[in-house]
Amino acid sequence: MSARFKKFDNFIKTIDLDSFRKKYSHIKIVETDLPRSVQVLKTMYRVYWNEADFNNIPDFEKLYEIYYDELKGDIEKFRIKTEMCSVCFGKGLKARIYRTWASIITQIHAGYVAETVFGEDSISMNDELDHEGKDFVVSYNGKAIPIQVKKESKRPESRVLRMGNNDNSVINIKYCVPNPKDFQNPRYVKTGELKPQVLDFVEFSKNGILARYDNGFVVFLDRVFKDIKDNFFK
User: How is 108-127 classified by DSSP, letter by letter?
Assistant: First the structure.
């Protein structure tokens, strides 16, 4: 495993996800589409990937400070356009950015996992690719194939990896995140059977596809990218 992966993986494990979730997930004030001028993607890809400082990786609160300081002029223009008061808008925007952060941080972690399989400098990731529907691009053995990481809110298919034709179309890799309460009570009281999403997660875990850290983060393991390497980069 590369040093880059190890440091980012350790960072993921230290995030107090439950605290952030309780603080922000219920606030849904700013739900309109954000213009690209105030989106957080460019900041996230720079801070966590392209210019990552692995000795000082910012958590959500610090990341939000960086984002807001960089874009506060455009953010204020957008707030005025929404006709919302600064207090409500501030609370709503931060909660909105949190939900994006929680999703993208999983994707970026997947990029570091992929890097351990394909090698450093094999993974390209930035906001322009994201807007094209490509979470990152794997370049290996003379091929460049885009990957898209998708969270399943419902019970996923039997495999996380959906294989397509051996061309340059996007490869979707899927993951499920059962409700934290389901992990605390994974079985139905009456039957004793595992709840469906927990059952799927257990299967993915046994197959070396997904893992769940103690803080609640669900992450990809290298099995997914080894499958891609074997099937698409021969």
Answer: HHHHHHHHHHH-TT-EE--H
Cα–Cα separations (whole angstroms), residue 195 to 182, 191, 202, 212 = 7, 10, 11, 16
Domain residue ranges of the chain, discontinuous segments joined by +: 3-114
Contact 49, 111 (CB under 8 A): yes
pLDDT band at 176 (very low <50, low <70, confident <90, very high): confident
- pLDDT (tens digit, 9 = 90+) per residue, 72-98? 999 999 999 999 999 999 999 999 999
Q: Under a CB-based contact definition with an 8 Å cutoff, are residues 172 and 124 in contact? A: no
Backbone angles phi, psi at 175, to 5 degrees: -140, 150
> What's the maximum distance between 2 C-alpha atoms anywhere in the chain?
56
Which residues lie closer than 8 Å to 148 by C-beta, 6 or more apart? 133, 134, 135, 170, 171, 172, 173
Tell me how many degrees the CA angle 231-212-58 measures, rounded to the nearest 5.
100
Are 145 and 171 a contacting pair, CB within 8 Å?
Answer: yes
Q: Please identify which residue in the block is written with the tokens 């993986």.
A: 9
CB atoms within 10 A of CB 210: 23
- In terms of Cα–Cα distance, which of 127, 115, 195, 209 is closest to 162? 209
For 39, the token pair is: 């989106």
Is the Cβ–Cβ distance between 173 and 147 less than 8 Å? yes
Flag whether the pTM goes above 0.85. yes
CB-count burial class (<10 Å; 0-12, 13-18, 19+) for 82: middle
